[in-house]
Amino acid sequence: MKTSGSKNGSLPIMAAALLFDSPVFLSNVPYLLDVNTMAKIISSLGGRVDFKGNSEVLIDPSNVSRYDPPLEPVIAMRASFLVAGALLARFGRAKVALPGGCAIGSRPVDIHLKGFEALGVKRSIEHGFVNLECDKLKGANIYLSYPSVGATENLIMASVFAEGMTVIDNAAKEPEILGLSEFLNLCGAKIRGAGSRTIEIEGVKSLKPIDNYSIIPDRIEAGTLMLAGAITQGDILVENINPDYLSSVIEKMIEAGIEVLPEKNSIRVRCKNRPKPVTIKTSPHPGFPTDMQAQFMALLSLGEGTSVITEMVFENRYLHAEELSRLGADIRIDGRTAVIVGVNHLSGAPVRALDLRAGAALVIAGLIAEGETRVFGLSHLNRGYENLEVKLSNLGASISKEVLP
């Protein structure tokens, strides 16, 4: 089964298109609600976004003249705030609503704003909007109090045209940071150290887009498919994925007794028994990704013993636990810790996806639950998975998606 392009890899690069004055052509872009939301934001600023089919997108930012995207698309998605850095680099100002997204906990933009201030930006927050303004961006040494992916991406974009050198310390190391930096470097930026703790950006005068840039594969979709194979005690091959992106997930799957065979651009998963209990603590990359916590909890709910998950990234990311319990899982939550006592089987029931990854967890739990499972709230799932029901059907699942009135 081939993995789609990365949602979290596409969104910052789409935002980075605002740095250019000529068309940007991207391939391997997944057709998702979040991608459409970013397209609406770019269009609202005067740009043009054309979906060409076969996961190809043409973004023409040449007529972008506004720096204040409208409220509605911005509050629908957390990643919408990524346009702030690009707009600052292009216009020296931006007015962006405080962003929305899944209700999985507090995700303040303070880290972004402190970084912008270091570059010489004046900021204020009024009526739910962040106002940013700067006569001239100047390189600076920036220390992030937390290795925020969004803040790292925003500051990279804001620093591309800044005068002098910008150094981001305690930067995020996620593969999506590498993707953004690679794209910008191919277009003439001077970024060093992406994927490490310290990133250096030497300001340049302008960027020139390359003919085509292919978005990296979606590691979270790949991980979700891998766990779907494991929970059903199946044998699947997930293609178009760099195993290094999922090293911590692979490690925990092997610890749980699952056979995982990484190749150069694929991962095979084989499982014949219930998973063994494991202990997981989420953390920034290269640690165990918070975006895989819910799906792994679904797997462990059918484990042979008691597993423990500690969520260290978001304080409210156990919205799926109660819904998994409706299927018969034995899960107890105490603050940031979840204790999962494995049960022999799950039973199908109506459940509701309360955030993106919770929806994925409920879908893969439904694959093994006895009887029919109906997952409501698919708008969350559609934000981050391209044709998940089709891919699971092709792997042998009995699954369909209904459009409800």
TrEMBL record:
Compartment list: Cytoplasm
Gene3D superfamilies xrefs: Enolpyruvate transferase domain
PANTHER family per UniProt: UDP-N-ACETYLGLUCOSAMINE 1-CARBOXYVINYLTRANSFERASE (PTHR43783:SF1)
Family of this protein: Belongs to the EPSP synthase family. MurA subfamily.
Name of the protein described by the UniProt record: UDP-N-acetylglucosamine 1-carboxyvinyltransferase
Active site annotation, chain numbering: C102 (proton donor)
Keyword annotations from UniProtKB, A to Z: Cell cycle, Cell division, Cell shape, Cell wall biogenesis/degradation, Cytoplasm, Peptidoglycan synthesis, Pyruvate, Transferase
Signal sequence interval, chain numbering: none
Role according to the record: Cell wall formation. Adds enolpyruvyl to UDP-N-acetylglucosamine.
Residues the record lists as 2-(S-cysteinyl)pyruvic acid O-phosphothioketal modifications: C102
